[in-house]
What does this fold into?
Amino acid sequence: MAEVTVFVDDAVLGRLPRVCVKDGVRTTDRLTFSQDVSGPTGLGVSWLLVLAGPLGWLGLFVISAMRNGGGGRLTVTLPFGEPAYHRLTLTKRARRQAYLVLAGAAIAAVLALLLRTTDGRLLAIGLAVVAIGALIKGTVESVRLNRLFVRLSLDASHRWVTLSGVHPNFVDSVQHDGHDSHISSSV
It folds into this structure.
């Protein structure tokens, strides 16, 4: 996959070549992506308050409630073909189903253990195996989903946005259509 840097206005308004960002084929379809680009917003060493017990937990809650969210959300409209959108929705659905199976199997395993019988324990072991399989499936689908999204990052001036994980044909099209851009390719 490659990356390309374009003007924020072009990305926000959807003024990009009509080439799917994921498949590299001509398309008239568009999809709106929204991503937080405010940078790291972690609590840093404040998480050590967890070790202080209930008073530390209260302090951590107060600190997290009072910090500024940054409001760094970027929404862009990108050319996105129907086959790529279909893969995206199928992957989202498969991930959601895997995590629902995981939750259901885990709850059922706990309930089976409450029976305190040999059959209940065997059932709990079987359900735990199902839960582990669902966890693996959910993790695989999450990785796939991450590959299907386009990652956005703003430069310091907030005038340029870098689109990462795009098809090389889209990069070529941006370059040849005369859009002001910086092109770079990464493996």
